[in-house]
Amino acid sequence: MSRAEQPPVEESYYQAHQKVYPREVKGRFTTLRITAVWVLLGLFYGLPWLRWDDRQAILFDLPARKFHLLGLTLWPQDFIFLAWLLVIAALSLFFFTAVGGRLWCGYACPQTVWTEVFLWMERVTEGDRAKRMRLDAAPLSTNKFLRKASKQFLWITFSLWTGFTFVGFFTPVDVLAQKVLTLSLGSWETFWVLFYGFATYGNAGFLREQVCKYMCPYARFQSAMFDRDTLIITYEAERGEPRGGRRKGTDPRAAGLGDCTDCTMCVQVCPTGIDIRNGLQYECIACAACIDACDSVMDKMGYPRGLVRYDTQNALDHKQTRVLRPRVIVYGFLLLALCVGFVVALAMRKPVGLDVLHDRNTLYRSLDSGEIENVYLLKIMNKGAEPRRFIVKVTDASGAASAVYRLDPTIPAFTVPAGEVFNAAVRVRKDAWDDTGETAARTDGVADLRFEVQAENDPSLRASAESRFFSPRE
Q: At the N or C end, where does the chain have fewer CB atoms within 10 A?
């Protein structure tokens, strides 16, 4: 049959997923990464149980609209600090990426951290890389079923505990634990425990490297922050090529070879399944497992370490590496300014807050005494650590004392507990007519007012808010 008579061959551009079996490796970077895993997981699972002044130290109390961070309590009015922190976090990512590449991905990203734990549980139940590959290829048996079931039990238990801990940052963890033990967990709490547990189970147990390769946006825009002086994981092709197998103690130059023995250990330990010898790839998360693997092989062969290492592209090209360069200086300056500004703003944060809401039912009321009265709801926030008694004052829009507008004389001072919001209903009155029979303080029916609360024992603790006074038009 001639080539022209052969039937067309269908080709597919879709490649089926092939499971990656990362090999366990030991080395200085692996030790650093495992240490980071222990520290970060310790913080995540331990912080909800930390107490501070008879309350949970870290608690995002959404129903009460209070965020407790150790000794600091933040309110919705302090949202600027949360936005500020997010900007600092984003700029920190830019800065450290420009200097050290994807250090975040390799050592601190939640996907990396939880995947390490799930891989450890997989090794405990199924064995090392070779055993796991043989087990998956083998037909179903009692041994395979027991090992797979044990792994799933550990994964599911750990995932549910992760979901429980996550919800514990929003519902007091001791209350949440009591609800779980008494089977009285609410619908929303149940949903988020299961949802976050399922997300952990799916991302760290099954998707793994696919999250980094296909779902994470950071892998897509990281190249915009890289330059030839950015620290990346590199393979020195000039030294390693041509690669090939050889006996221990063989002089590679005499054999016409490079230092790379083509053992593929760097590929076997890679959690994303790439070959670092093919150059920098967006799938590389800079975990440095390939460095530890290659260094161990170089030690066995008696060759110098560093065939695979952290380095810059300029260093590989025998050019000088510049640590201080325009983008690093700009990122560093902005990051320093934001951090200093955040600390200063937090130190100058007022421990008193005030919101004023005008009565929605009635704009104004005409009293028998000839006065016009407006009713307001004052929300006095005591952000401090001790209860305080506040005095309420009313002034005109400029802040000057007003003889036209006055508070109901029966209004007392208000005592607000520490870390609480006190709702106080107050009445403001003004005369409808002055002594000449003209309308008092003509405002076309609307005037601007300013309310001020001041602590009795500390006049420096004060807050103000503006509202409007409504009266009949002329």
A: N
- Per-residue three-class SS string for the chain: CCHHHCCCCCCCCCCCCCCCCCCCCCCHHHHHHHHHHHHHHHHHHHHHHCECCCCECEEEECCCCEEEECCEEECHHHHHHHHHHHHHHHHHHHHHHHHHCCHHHHHCCHHHHHHHHHHHHHHHHHCCHHHHHHHHHCCCCHHHHHHHHHHHHHHHHHHHHHHHHHHCCCCCHHHHHHHHHCCCCCHHHHHHHHHHHHHHHHHHHHHCHHHHHHHCCHHHHHHHHCCCCCCEEEECHHHHCCCCCCCCCCCCCCCCCCCCCCCCHHHHCCCCCCCHHHCCCCCCCCCCHHHHHHHHHHHHHCCCCCCEEEECHHHHCCCCCCCCCHHHHHHHHHHHHHHHHHHHHHHCCCCEEEEEEECCCCCCEECCCCEEEEEEEEEEEECCCCCEEEEEEEEECCCCECCCCEECCCCCCEEECCCEEEEEEEEEEEECECCCCCECCCCCCEEEEEEEEEECCCCCCEEEEEEEEECCCC
**Which pLDDT belongs to residue 323?**
86
Average pLDDT value for residue range 154-173: 96
The residue ranking higher by pLDDT, 168 or 15, is 168
Q: Which homologous superfamily is 352-433+440-470 in?
A: Immunoglobulins (2.60.40.10)
- pLDDT tens sequence across 358-374: 988 888 888 888 888 99
Stretch 423-429: mean pLDDT:
90
pLDDT more than 70, % of the chain: 92
- Per-residue pLDDT of 93-106, as tens digits, reads 889 999 888 889 99
For residues 283-293, give the mean pLDDT: 94
Q: What is the pTM of this model?
A: 0.80
Which residues have CB under 8 Å from 373's CB, separation 6+?
Answer: 364, 365, 366, 367, 427, 428, 429
